[in-house]
Amino acid sequence: MVALKCLHVCCRWKLFQKYSITGSDDAFGRSRDGLLWCKDFGHHVNGEFSMASVQANLLIEDLSQIESGSLSLSDSGPFGSFVGVYDGHGGQEAAQYIANHLFGHIKRLTAEQQSMSLDVLRNAIHDTETGFLSLVSEQWLLNPRLASAGSCCLVGIVCDGTIYVASLGDSRAVLGRLVRATGEVLPLQLSAEHNVSIESVRQEVRSSHSDDPEIVVQKHNVWRVKGLIQISRSIGDAFLKKAEFNRKPLMPRFRLRDTFSKPILSSEPSISVQKVHPDDKFIIFASDGLWEQLSNQDAVNFIQNHPRKLTIFKLVQFLFLGELREGFCSLNSIEGSNKIQLLAELWQGIARRLAMAAMQKAAKKREMRTSDLMRISLEVRRHFHDDITVIVLFLDSSLVGEISSSKGPTVSLRAGSMTQLPANSLAPLMDR
């Protein structure tokens, strides 16, 4: 009898290993195709988090980071959580610069003001933009391509029971708020989008450049600023902000025919500030690679309807008993290997599973299997989907309301960079 039980346990474990993408020793996720970066589970000052990034471009241009602990250079705080999603274009340089400098500016300015505020966030973004444009100027003759590098920038800070969100470009932050009467979770978009595919954004750009009838034009059925770029606000893109970079030695395909006297793109962020509500459950921070595939409601429903993680206790319970209890009972009606496959997916973090849901949607649009999509080489994969970056920040009401002098766990992680990764960064966890 004991031998038979051990055999059943071993069989379930073998199947679980077959379907699972297991974590490495440092608990970072592992990718089947080498194109996934993830931190499945972690703790921040205000709760738990999960993050993932999927590469589609030949060089991944999405970078992201999460910082938890002191938001100031001072040891006395304030303490909170910082999230950044930087969707680069024209190269990774602008996104990398933001990842290296923005949080440092926030800590410096918070120390000067002795508190977190909307002005701290706005000024930190301004200082980051100024620093990158200065770098472009310094390297103009040696590396003129840097003038065409830019990045969307989405930043979220949770501190003292307040949520601050700043955005430039078309990445998006969506809050999931529970409706107690129905048990539903409603999506509340916290960020503004600056993409000229949106009529109101086109009107805004035209109003700011009323003397230029070609400020926004359609090219290949896509609205673009000056026929070049879809977003109207960014960090970087010096060639569209300063006329001095709209000339040789910049590559001809970036140079405009006519000069300009004021910036074509803006570096002014849209910022929202709101108090955390007791029914606020989580915030999804993601690049447009996710939102091109999933609606706000799709994303919050996915998180609400899927357990955020399968604990070791639950896994052991299943291996020895062949069933699950306390919140997972509905899985017991699923038969055999299908149940084990589902459990293996639950072993992965919710951000990784959300990114994979977007991949499945992209594959479905092309009437193909997700596994086939994941085998497509990077040279052509971008035609099916963009880089996808997801960070899910869960909000624990018992922690969010605490005074910011409470330090909580210290976290400093980055995902997406291909070169010069700090030791605490997330990296591709499969041999290339």
UniProtKB/TrEMBL annotation:
Domain PPM-type phosphatase, first and last residues per copy: 48-395
Gene3D superfamilies (UniProt xref): PPM-type phosphatase domain
Reaction(s) catalysed (UniProt annotation): O-phospho-L-threonyl-[protein] + H2O = L-threonyl-[protein] + phosphate; O-phospho-L-seryl-[protein] + H2O = L-seryl-[protein] + phosphate
Highest taxon above the source species: Eukaryota
UniProt keyword annotation of Metal-binding present: yes
Top-level class of the enzyme under EC nomenclature: hydrolase
Cofactor(s) in the UniProt record: Mg(2+); Mn(2+)
Keyword list, A-Z: Hydrolase, Magnesium, Manganese, Metal-binding, Protein phosphatase
Pfam families: PP2C (PF00481)
EC number: 3.1.3.16
Signal peptide: none
GO molecular function: metal ion binding; protein serine/threonine phosphatase activity
Keyword field contains Disulfide bond: no
Coiled-coil residue windows: none
SMART domains listed in its UniProt record: PP2Cc
Family: Belongs to the PP2C family.
Protein name as it appears in the record: protein-serine/threonine phosphatase
